[in-house]
UniProtKB/TrEMBL annotation:
Domain Orc1-like AAA ATPase residues, every copy: 53-172
Coiled coil: none
Domain of life assignment: Bacteria
Provenance organism: Umezawaea tangerina
Pfam family, one: AAA_16
Protein name: NACHT domain-containing protein
Amino acid sequence: MDEAGAPGRRVVNVAQDVTGAVIQADSIGTVNAGAAPPRARTFDDLVADRVAEFVGRRFLLDELRDFLRDHRGGYFLVRGEPGIGKTSLSAWVANQYDAPRHFVQAGTHYSTPRHFIDNIGTQLIGRHRLALPPPGPGDHHGGYLEDLFHAVARTADKPVLLVVDALDEVDQPAGRATTLYLPDRLPDGVFALLTSRPRETGHDLALPSGVHQRLLAHDDPLNAADLAEYVTRYFAAHSTAIDLAVSRHRTTRAELATAVVEKSCGNFMYAHHVVRDIAAGRLQDWTPATLPTGLAGYYRAHWARMRRTSPEWTDVLLPVLVRLVVHDHPVTAGNLCDPPTSGTLTPTRVWAALDKWREFLHEAREHGKRTYQLYHRSFREFLLEQPEVEVAREEQRERVVLSALDGALDRARRRP
């Protein structure tokens, strides 16, 4: 896996791991791969994080392989509920194929068509050394993408796969255009793996025609088998902590693994959190039968436990979390602190709160600074349903507005 997915390498093991015997190891994905220009973002931290614990999905990878083999070009869309593993699948495929990629993130500039076109355009122009100018102010539309993809098709001597994750998080005005202004048809030799939430959750996309769609269902037996493999691997990698937990709670590894899979309701994010809580001893007085049910059930149980056991809940933990919700984009620890002359959220307290919430945060480095953002959109949606978060959120918004007004008045007073 590491050799196949290492940045800048040819995809040595794709024939065995992804594309099977029909498409050879060097026949897709890394055509003329040069280093992308600096302003392209390839989401390396996110990809590394998700690939590290990726398991299974053979049935989806095989279906994608067959699609690449049997079609001359086109879109392959995977739909699935929040937390089922769509982003991890995207990261794995992007890593294995060394594919140009864009991960849409709600509430950030990475959710807009403009930044998608800038980012994917810069990657493709750099990789394929296209005689095409980078997208400019007037190029954020479908016409530019059509020209770009056709230029790639003319230049590449083998098929090219793009990865675009989380179409349901795109911030785009309603209209006649397709989501992200994706061309209605991709030229021969150009493919795209897309992901989104299901239609049933209110995410009906404006898709190009002829998109191949695959629903990753929570109750699919193949999904349950992948979850069981994930839990078994985690237990094996953390055997000392897990064995201590099962002995304390008078159960067995097998019984606990079965319970986690059943209680997960097919959700990988649930399993990700619960196995870590068990290993770390954060769950008290549990039995396999009393584990929370489903991702929302886990969030409720964790929320109640934090409120009950954290002395600084009201003054520190809740305010830091609310500020992460209000910002809804990557921020530094300094962005979360109160001004030095007032407030209780000192750097020391903010760092302590970030450590408490670490399992729910995505850490990255941007422009040399460490940033933090809520790890998963489903957790943010859960938080927005909590009355105390809504109250604190409104208070924080008022403080932000008043602070901005005070700053503007102070600058006005200082003008000569």
